[in-house]
Structure formats: C-alpha cells, structure tokens
Amino acid sequence: MDDLEALERAYRHAEAVISRIPPGAMDRPTPCPEWDVRALLRHLVGAVAAFPEMLRGEPPDWSANLVGDDAVASFRTAADANLAAWRAPGALDTPVGMLPGMRLFDLNLVDAVVHTWDLATATDQDSRIDADLAEQVFATWRAAPLDRSRAAGAFGPEVEVPPDAPITDRLVALLGRRP
User: Considering the entire predicted model, what is its pTM?
Assistant: First the structure.
C-alpha cells in the first residue's frame, strides 16, 4: 500500500477508536506513563494538526488543546488537513534532520498508529492493528535509528516478544510497549 493509503487507513482506525472511548475513561492510565487518556487524545489530535504546520516550516503550538467538546470531529478536521498537506508535491519526502534516513511522514504514521493502539489498550478496545499497516510501519521503524528516538524519550526500550508473535505485538514491542 502506498504512504497516503496507509495514513488514511491509520486515521480511519484512530477515528473508530476515538468514537468508542467510553464516558468516564479520560482519567485512565495509558501505555504512555506520562499521559492519561485525556492527555494522549490531546497529543494525538495535536500531532495530527501539527504535521501540516511543520511541513510549512512553522513551529507547532504543542500547548494548544485542539480536542474541544467533540473529539471525533476535532480529530477528523485535523486528519483531513493533514492528509491534504501530505498530498502537496514533495511533501512525503521531507526529511527529519535528527533521524538520518527518516521522513517526517514516517513520524506522522508511527505516531498515529501506535498512539491509536495506546488509546485502544487504555480503553479496553480491540487493540490489533491492521496487519498490512502494522507490517509497513514495523519494516520502516525496524530499520530506523531508534537509539536517537529512545534517547529523546519518544520510545522506550524494546520489549522482548517471540519472533512469531502477531505483527501488532512485534511493532509495539519494538517501540517499547508491552503487548
């Protein structure tokens, strides 16, 4: 699948998970120790909204709360703008200076996929990631300079799982989560 199809698939999944967050779940812990469901949802929507700003060379406002009263609508608005930004000529090839060989797009996709898994896990939803999408993200990040991302606190140390574990488990374990 091509990059935009992968991101569209990731966003459809994220929107479905967000729409099923049960009332009263916002204070639950998540696999991201520093964030509860509310903070993680705020991060996810904010990050989706931030990538178009970064593509324009603008610094995102990470303190903005873009979730509002309707998390699904807020996410959809951010996702639509995000996808439009990635469709601009050359956007998909924008490099990430601190991660040699990685694209800004790669960060966007992994953030959306893995934080959706985090939200699903924290809210007792099915946390499986579409196998083709998980394979694509896993292949990219298995070859990435993860030591730099780990040093920056973006990912935890890899968690050991059997080599024949489901792809969702291998992906989240690679990025420091316990499946």
Answer: 0.95
